[in-house]
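Go through this fold for my students:
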Amino acid sequence: MKKLMRSLLVFAACTGLLHAQSIEFNPDDAISTKHKTTVKGVSFDYTATTGMMPVWNLDGKPIAAVHFTYYERDGISDRSMRPLVFSFNGGPGAASLWMQLGYTGPVKLKIDEEGYPIMPYGTENNPYSLLDVADIVFVNPVNTGYSRILDKSVDRGYFFGVNEDIAYLSGWIRTFITRYNRWTSPKFLIGESYGTTRVSGLAMALQSRENIFLNGVVLVSATDLGLRRDGPVREAIFLPYMAATAWYHKKLPADLQQKDLLEVLPEVERFTIEEYIPALAWGGSLPEQRRTEIARRVSRYSGISQEAIINYNLTISTNFFWKELLRDEGYTVGRLDSRYRGKDVVDGGERPEYNAEMVAWNQAFTPAINHYFANNLKYKTDLQYYVSGPVRPWNTEGNNTGNDLMRAVAQNPWLHVMLQAGYYDGACDYFSGQYNFWQMDKGGKFQERFSFRGYRSGHMMYLRYPDLQQANEDIREFIHNSMPDRGKAARY
């Protein structure tokens, strides 16, 4: 492999000032290390390969370096039926550390059983990793992790947008598959948060541009995928999430509180679709008696006072909910995981002063990923690992990723889709994710290839130990069910 050396101008913010630092690195180089692990009680060896692989322009000039980590189980003589999983986080601008050290990789973050940081920071064996059944590639898109643009004269718009991101990454995946000889392997994509937008678009881009046909796409905490949720739908659809959060914090009426969460949610979901959305659609023409009844029911399910709901014209913004639910106890609740509580300096106001869950997660993940690359994978670099990288402005025009995924499913009889969501995620709530599926497949023709799994945690459901085990097992089952029998034709 030809060694390409480039000098990268890296900008780091320090006390509000930008200081330039010239860091030399190889944009087309990787290092492999050998490791042992035990997954579900079975011990085996694996190889971890981490490094850079370029993105080329149409003239064949390398314009960016994408950092990746590739885990392969050793001792597999024939990988033609060995699944290959490409894993992406979100943001946009988020690096791959969240799922790499939190979810499916062979090592995991040292945290307590509910996902809170503990010291000393670091990693340990992940006993539920997917590596027993699939090889995994964790990808850092440009300006996340160690990935960088090579030439500052290159237009940033080439990388930073919904369709731009999909375009260059589809080519990068094709190059990876070719280099590592994985063309015949069954292929899967996993994306979390904005990563669900990315992999939904990639499913169609890979299929139509690269002739790479997938077996499965896993959406972890899905975004709106470019599907419109306007007016009453947008205003009402978070109510089931709010009910889950209120139930967790024991803010529901006694008759609901004594039920299990999964007994409460179907009732709230039915109310949301059958009564709440239609009531909001009537707007100012809704009769006063009906308005009072809707406010009472929304209060009952959300834990927010009926008076506040009436004052806000029957709707509750998520920001207000996160601030208001535990205001009487002096706490806020987290956005991405509403099990987490925060304390604001000022109790008044319409929104929390910070996201309690993100502070906790950054505290544990950032030191762990830096230590892991340098000490476990022997990847030495002076580049800063961008946990959240500079990718703004991000072009959001032309986001048709949900419909693109649906087109890919329709055209590819083997392609299956699974949504995984935490009931306490207030950013990418579980019920909106299910709504996506209903709207993507309006005719109900492909519902047997769509599946949903919910968990009693938040955005990163895998940080809660019982959900780490169950969510990985759900992906194993999904992979198994998405794999055709050897020799079976792809046809309707």
